[in-house]
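Field reference: "sequence" (input) and "structure" (output). Example, DUF1758 domain-containing protein:
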Amino acid sequence: MEINRSHPELPREPNNTSTATVIDNLTSTDNPTTTGYMTTEDSTTTTTTKTRSKVLLQTAVTYAQGENGSNPIPVRLRFDSGSQCSYITNSLKKRLGLVPIRTETLNLNTFGDDHFKKRRCDIVQLSLKGNSDNRKITALCFPNLCAQLTITIDLSLHPHLQDLQLSDLNIAEGRQSDSSIDILIGAVYYFDILTAEMVRGESGPVAVSSDFGWVVTGPTTYTESCSKVSEFICSSTSNVHYQHHPHLR
């Protein structure tokens, strides 16, 4: 005779699950099983501290005008003696209605990359308003010149800067209205616009005289610290029913 020996299937309840993101230290405590259920608790505490110093690049604000007699518009420019050429954004070219005088092919590559890409750029001419006279420059057109410059400083912490006629007030804390760059001035015009006159404090950034006003550059005298503590607590309870089933004999 064949005997069918089987156990009745245990009834199950839906699992209670929970998820916690662990960023730093994880402490998990499992309590001993009690009558009919088990409880687990997971807690995570995360502390992040980030400290970084601020460095101001050489920027100035002036007015640009096309050779076609277009109305002058305010522009923000950055000085870069490491660049052979000067550049303007395609957006500025369009706003001034500039007509290319010729085109040039550039070989573009990123830092540490042996390969380059070719890109054809328009070359235009425009004038920049200086303190004494307008400065005519020739520049290549490019979609974007650099990332937005959002670093500002508290001028009250730098007495040597307070009496100067700063060219770019966007660097002053609470006064930034434009963080984008419209023009990059390369080595060809760099020393024609910037002079050798310089103002230094005991520490912090220095001011360099230019035809557009005083240009502030260099590291600030303080670092910005950000400390954030976040606590995430996740508790989960799983109910497990136990039933005793005698063995069939």
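Confidence is low (pLDDT under 50) at residues 1-14, 16-35, 223-244.
The first strand starts at residue 25 and ends at 30.
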